[in-house]
Amino acid sequence: MNINNLKSSIRKKNNTIFWITNPNLINLEIAIKSNYFDIYVIDYEHSLISIDEIKNIIVLLNNLNLPILIRFAKFNIVEAPKFLDYGIDGIIASEVASLKQLNFIKKIIFYPEIGNRGVGLGRMNQHGKTFKNYMKVINKKLVFLPMIERDLKLNEIESIYKDKNVDGCLVGPYDLSMSLKQPGNFKSKKFKIILNHVIDMKKKYKKLAGIHFMDTNLNNLSKVKKKGFNFIPILTDVQFFKLGLHNIINK
Fold it and tell me: Does 53 reside within a domain?
């Protein structure tokens, strides 16, 4: 597992994220060899990747000492412990809209005294070889990123940022715009207010601010970074393929 410095670096540094929705290991290998991406995320909400395919991706990235997170939905977050046991470095939780929901997720993914995650032997502790050290550090090192995808009050967003186990928040722009009743409109007043507040919370609590960059014009990426976002998934793996194919065909 890649837990030693990730929690610190993910808050402070600029991180470019490769978003995995397709289990093709050749495509993933190409992305890895590009040396462009810092962290890899499996989307377990909006993909049909099987558990066996996820296991293969985890093993590949673990062996290359590359950080890996999984994005869970509300309906499958209860599955998170088995993937943590298999070797992922952290959790991205969709649609966190209240402290009650936040605390429910914490109970699932953290060991006591924070949560109720069951204790066992697995890849995460080398099947018992590093058990004591793993148990000593994991609650402090586990990366936890709630997603802002609902029309929350600003004080509700701050309550999430305040939590000492939270490393920052990731904005899901399409779901957020949908909740604001303006799907796909990323320039609405309310949308901009929420983004600005996330940046303010990043500065206030010294945590990360993330947004999923879905613009096929990568020249606009610098604007997002300049605004202050430092955890940026770029498109998805399939969109990269589609964009590359389009560029080749239309040359």
Answer: yes
